From TrEMBL:
Chain ranges of the THO complex subunit 2 N-terminal domain: 109-226
Subcellular location, record wording: Nucleus
InterPro entries per UniProt: Tho2, THO_THOC2_C, THO_THOC2_N, THOC2_N
Protein name (record): THO complex subunit 2
Composition bias type Gly residues, residue spans: 1042-1052
Source species of the chain: Chloropicon roscoffensis
């Protein structure tokens, strides 16, 4: 079709095919002037002559001839050798030859006319790429015109010829690799500019637009299959975080779940589609290869479709896409970075949701994609370009893009900042990294994350090992400016001219503060504060205190936050008298002589450049900003909890190891036994039966060998988990000891400073609160808790007014008064930190006396007044502070009782009258918390004397008071009423399962019988023989153990010998009928025991006399078919009753006694059905049949003993499943149940 279009263009302008052939001849004869003139003429006419195969081939050959001399200089050892820049520079006349090629105008014109049709000859494309690479490497260090000329030539060829030709070339990763070798030497700004021009050309040319359209369609088709395949996890899922806390828990749970099935059970398990984990993993890899193949040919349109897919489906789509891009080339990853940044910077879309405060889903999805790509492919993704984008957005006051930076740091380094955390998590911030990881305050750094973090630090030039001079100063290009810009966002938003809504402004300030804390922790990294070398490198990396304060205009709290490790080291080195442990004197001498200076120099810098707090001791001011939470507080309880968790996991692994060893030993015994059997049977394989037996044994041995291998692999996995747990326990103990020593050193340093440096200086609480406490409380949760411990532990060492020691109650009284005034100007996160700070005043409130008590109690009045206001910020902050204080137990102090009612009224007003839904929910939950924590627990009511004797089945309602004793003891045992009716559940089980359940509750009732047992024992249709429901797993009875009715052959054996000497199995023993003294006491003379005392049997009701059944043996008649009005045998215990009329006695022989049953060959006959219930009898009553003559055995009617219902019981019977429930069945007392009065009238 393309040739027809070209031919139509030529005919329309009166061009003939011989002119094309003339151009081909001119190119072959190296007449470039004629050929260029013809090509220019056709280009002005709108015809692309290179679309013809002959013209394209001739142009490619001409370009190859022109670049060969230059390639010979660049590759002196041949084209098959690797390119060596040093050899190219050393080659004679290389620079002159390359300069001639760059100045060759004919080569430029031929490449411009060739354009994307360079893909016609991939060999010519590779030669052009190698020429461009050599030019960039040779003139990389050059200056002046040669460097500019090389950049212009290479950029033009790449934009017009090389990059567009990839869209028309078939998928070839080698061609993409050649292009990337050229592009990687260019800065990312230049590369992204070339990608932008490439995208414009793809939209302008018809041929390129068609190729991109086909690539987009194919990519969408593959993505649909990739998403479906990515839903299931393969066996390799999660291996990258095997060393993390989450990976440890997951691997342990998998090992504990699979120890009974074997390690290979999960790999062989199939999902709902019938695919195993290995098959799913192979399917994902196959689709990933297809996706990479599309990106090799047309990376730009394919990756645009992928990014658009992630935007549409949200953050959950990012992980499968990253897994599918595993086979993408570095060139494809670079193009993907450009596409993501282009989508983020593209205008016309709102980056906030409709509520105006939360970030849009598509921005969150792209941020997640960036983070996962940077962690999975740290060397291929250009993270420096991402950081530059965030920096540029901050310059334009677009703080919403900080979500990209936060997600990037979280995925690569594991550092994160959580605002809304519990009190225990706040205390965990005083510990080390392992304690923070256990508290979900920091992500565990895996090996992959360590590589990603190192690559990101190198890209931002923030590595502490960058060296002196140039390496450290390169960090000023991007890393440190990003730190300064995040610190400046607080004031920038406060004084912004955009005037955003108040709620949105507070949310943006909190996000900026969170981003600054997260990025500053990343900049600090794994800084060893005991190493002078690391501290010196960190000092060179950061701007000085003077520059950050005066030049960049940062507040003191931000300056001191960045320089705190250096200031703390100077503080410890300056107090050598308080640090007499080993190695501290050498560290002090090294610090004084090093580049950090001394403590006195730091005080001079603070007084001169930062702030001179008049009325406040400068040494106390600098000490306050130098220490951290771990210096004042040691989280002993949190470390104990973390150690206990690790110990429990190790114990679980040990238990699983013991079970695995036991299974392995049993498998080895079975294997040895089978090998012995195989040796014995091996010589007897004469018949076919023996051969089959031998093969069966071989198969069993192969199965056991497989199970043994699986068990061994499982044991290795468990052993690795145990080693991991032991290592974690050891590292946790070491970290705990380091934190304890750190807190001890800081305490000694503070005590020495208070006794020598702060002595004689009075502390002004107003200046201390406004210059130290309040700014640091607003920084983070860790700093808020630090301020609380500083007021409790350090201020009592200082002097107050009159030369006396400062009272902590006085300090907290002033802090509470001033904090109440600030509730209207704080953000929600800052209010939560203020609540953490105020929650540390519990001890001071309990010990307060006099006027301090009233001042401390004024906080609750202020909070109640704030709740009654109509301003959103005041209400929200008041409830946030109140929640923190109540959660830490401040509601127990006496001052809260006086203001409790006012606080609850204010919360009720907010819950009912507030327009904001979040305030309503917050007020309701907080009111419930206050009421639940302050009300007294309800005392248990003592039972009345008349109710104490009532238990189960009694008429009293207070049955719970009698359930405190154990079985057979206390009021519960004495409260049993044998006359009470049996318990019938309201739903769930049928008659059969219900009777089994009631049999365990009422042991005087016989067990149920299964339908198949009656057929097995030879009974009639519908009969049931006795079979215990748990006969397959019940323990030996008294008779088996040698008790009453024990066998003569020994009580412990499962088989015994009968009267005739034959061995009787347990199943045959059950067929013989019940024996006295066994598990059930149906025929024993003594009543059953329950709850530790014998139960009195109720007297039998008077029953109507009936003639006894016939004793002579009569041949059993076949049963008539059941009628529609009669019911089948019920689910009660004993054999089912045969259907016969009540007036006619049974014509069947009586069942034999147990002694004669074992020797009789005739099956036991069915029992006669008891007479129907009379209309005069109550519906719940039952009728008992007289015992059979001779007693001791089963009853003549085969019903056995039944628990009778009490008279007047109206509780309905719930029918079971199966045939019995459909036709009525039997009631639990042995009688026959009928529906309605139809049966009664008939009888």
């Amino acid at each position: 079709m393309l040739r027809q279009v070209v031919r139509g263009k030529v005919d329309g302008f009166d061009f003939h095919g011989q002119r094309l052939r003339l151009c081909v001849s001119a190119l072959e004869s190296e007449d470039y002037a004629l050929s260029t003139r013809l090509l220019d003429y056709w280009e002005r006419a709108g015809v692309s002559a290179a679309a013809d195969d002959c013209i394209a081939g001739a142009l490619c050959k001409a370009v190859t001839r022109l670049v060969k001399p230059a390639l010979a200089c660049l590759y002196p050892r041949g084209m098959r050798r690797r390119f060596d820049p040093d050899a190219a520079r050393a080659a004679k006349g290389s620079r002159e030859e390359i300069s001639l090629v760059l100045r060759n105008a004919e080569l430029r014109k031929l490449l411009n006319h060739l354009g994307p049709h360079l893909s016609f000859d991939l060999r010519a494309l590779a030669l052009v790429c190698r020429l461009l690479r050599g030019c960039l490497c040779l003139f990389k260090e050059g200056e002046g015109g040669d460097r500019n000329q090389a950049d212009a030539f290479c950029g033009g060829v790449l934009e017009t010829c090389v990059l567009p030709s990839l869209c028309l070339a078939p998928a070839n990763p080698a061609a993409s690799a050649e292009v990337w070798l050229v592009l990687r030497d260019l800065p990312y700004e230049r590369r992204f500019s070339l990608y932008g021009g490439w995208a414009d050309k793809c939209e302008g040319a018809d041929l390129l637009r068609a190729a991109c359209k086909l690539a987009r369609v194919e990519t969408r088709r593959i993505l649909r299959r990739t998403t479906a395949a990515g839903e299931g996890g393969g066996p390799g899922q999660g291996l990258e975080d095997r060393g993390s806390e989450q990976g440890f828990l997951r691997d342990l749970s998998r090992a504990l779940q699979g120890d009974s099935q074997g390690g290979g059970a999960q790999q062989d398990a199939r999902d709902e589609n019938g695919e195993t984990a290995a098959e799913r993993l192979e399917a994902k890899r196959r689709l990933a290869r297809l996706l990479a193949k599309c990106c090799h040919a047309c990376p730009l349109p394919c990756l645009e479709v992928i990014v658009a897919q992630v935007e549409s489906y949200g953050e959950s789509m990012a992980a499968p896409i990253v897994e599918a891009l595993r086979y993408l080339t570095p060139f494809g990853h670079d193009v993907l970075t450009y596409v993501v940044l282009t989508r983020l910077a593209k205008g016309g879309r709102e980056k906030f949701k409709e509520d105006g405060t939360n970030v849009a889903d598509w921005v969150e999805a792209l941020a997640a994609l960036v983070g996962l790509l940077a962690r999975k492919f740290p060397k291929e993704v250009e993270t420096k370009a991402i950081a530059q984008y965030v920096l540029n957005q901050l310059k334009c006051d677009q703080t919403v893009d900080l979500v990209v930076l936060r997600r990037l740091l979280k995925e690569t380094d594991g550092v994160m900042h959580v605002d809304d955390i519990s009190d225990n998590q706040v205390e965990m911030l005083a510990g080390g990294n392992m304690l923070k990881v256990s508290g979900l305050l920091k992500g565990e750094r895996t090996q992959q994350m360590r590589l990603a973090s190192r690559a990101l630090r190198d890209r931002l030039s923030l590595s502490l090992a960058a060296g002196e001079g140039e390496g450290a100063r390169e960090g000023m290009d991007l890393g440190v400016p990003l730190l300064v810009m995040t610190a400046q966002q607080h004031n920038a938003l406060m004084f912004s001219l955009l005037n955003p809504p108040l709620k949105l402004l507070g949310v943006l300030i909190d996000r900026c503060q969170s981003s600054f804390l997260q990025y500053s922790a990343f900049v600090r990294g794994d800084l060893d504060e005991t190493s002078a070398k690391d501290l010196a490198a960190y000092a060179k990396l950061l701007p000085s205190v003077e520059d950050m304060s005066s030049l960049h205009g940062l507040e003191p709290e931000y300056v001191f936050h960045c320089h705190r490790p250096l200031m703390r080291a100077l503080l410890l080195w300056s107090h050598a008298e308080a640090l007499r442990e080993e190695g501290q004197e050498e560290a002090q001498a090294e610090g004084k002589d090093g580049p950090l200076g001394s403590w006195e120099d730091l005080l001079g810098v603070v007084r001169r450049a930062v702030r001179d707090p008049k009325g406040l001791d400068l040494d106390l001011y600098a000490t306050f900003w130098s220490l951290e939470l771990s210096d004042l507080f040691f989280p002993k309880e949190r470390y104990d909890e973390a150690s206990q968790q690790v110990d429990q996991r190790v114990q679980q692994v040990d238990k699983a190891l013991g079970k695995t060893d036991k299974d392995a030993s049993s498998l080895k015994e079975e294997r040895d036994f089978l090998e012995t059997e195989l040796k014995r049977i091996g010589g007897k394989r004469g018949s076919q039966r023996e051969e089959q037996r031998f093969r069966k044994k071989l198969l069993e041995r192969a199965n056991i060998e497989h199970e043994l291998e699986v068990t061994q692999r499982q044991r290795e996995d468990l052993a690795a988990l145990r080693r991991l747990g032991v290592d974690r326990r050891r590292e946790l103990r070491e970290e705990r000891e380091r934190c304890r020593v750190r807190a001890k050193e800081a305490a000694a340093c503070i005590a020495e400073a208070a006794s020598k440096r702060w002595d004689g200086h009075e502390v002004d609480l107003e200046r201390l609160f406004h210059h130290c406490v309040l700014p640091r409380v607003r920084m983070s949760e860790q700093d808020a808790l630090y301020c609380g411990h500083f007021v409790n532990a350090v201020l009592p060492l200082c002097e107050g007014e009159g030369g006396q020691k400062l009272n902590s109650s006085k300090a907290w009284a002033y802090a509470r008064l001033e904090s109440g005034k600030l509730l209207g100007i704080l953000t929600q996160a800052e209010a939560a930190r203020l609540g953490i700070f105020l929650s540390c005043s519990r001890e001071a409130a309990e010990d307060a006396e006099g006027s301090h008590t009233e001042a401390l109690a004024s906080l609750w009045t202020i909070l109640a007044n704030r709740l009654s206001q109509d301003e959103y910020t005041a209400r929200c902050n008041a409830m946030t502070v109140l929640r923190r204080c109540v959660g830490r137990g401040l509601d127990k102090e006496p001052g809260f009782e006086g203001a409790k009612q006012a606080v609850l009224e204010g919360l009720a007003k907010v819950a009912q009258g507030a327009e904001e839904e979040d305030l309503k929910q917050m007020a309701k939950s907080l009111a419930g918390l206050i009421v639940g924590k302050t009300k007294k627990p309800a005392q248990k009511r003592k039972p009345a004397p008349a109710e104490q004797g009532k238990g189960l089945g009694g008429s009293g309602n207070n049955n719970k008071s009698n359930n405190n004793g154990r079985r057979g003891e206390g009021p519960r045992a004495s409260g049993l009423n044998p006359r009470s009716p049996p318990f019938v559940p309201r739903g769930g089980r049928g008659d059969r399962d219900r009777d089994r359940h009631d049999h365990h509750l009422h042991r005087d009732a016989p067990p149920p019988r299964d339908r198949h047992d009656g057929r097995r024992d030879g009974g009639g249709v519908g009969e049931r023989a006795y079979a215990h429901p748990n006969s397959h797993k019940r323990r030996l009875s008294d008779g088996d153990r040698g008790g009453p009715g024990a066998r003569e052959s020994g009580g412990g054996s499962k088989r015994r010998r009968g009267d005739d000497g034959m061995v009787v199995s347990p199943r045959d023993r059950d067929r013989e009928g019940r024996r006295p003294g066994r598990h059930h006491h149906h025929d024993s003379g003594r009543p059953p025991l329950r709850s530790g005392r014998p139960m009195e049997r109720p007297p039998p009701r008077p029953m109507e006399k009936r003639p006894p059944p016939r004793q002579e043996a009569v041949k059993a008649k076949p049963r008539p078919p059941p009628s529609s009005t009669t019911s089948a045998a019920g689910a009660g215990a004993g054999a089912g009753a045969a259907k016969s009329k009540a007036s006619t006695p049974s014509s069947r022989p009586p069942p034999p006694t147990p002694s004669s049953a074992s020797g009789s060959s005739r099956p036991p006959p069915p029992s006669a059905r008891p007479p129907p219930r009379r209309e005069s009898e109550p519906r719940g009553s039952s009728r008992r049949t007289p015992p059979a003559p001779g007693g001791g055995g089963a009853r003549p009617d085969g019903e056995g003993k039944k628990r009778r219902r009490s008279e007047g019981s109206k509780q309905p019977q719930r029918g079971g499943g199966g045939e019995d429930s459909q036709r009525g069945g039997r009631d639990r007392s042995g009688g026959e149940r009928h529906h309605g009065r139809k049966r009664s009238r008939r009888t």
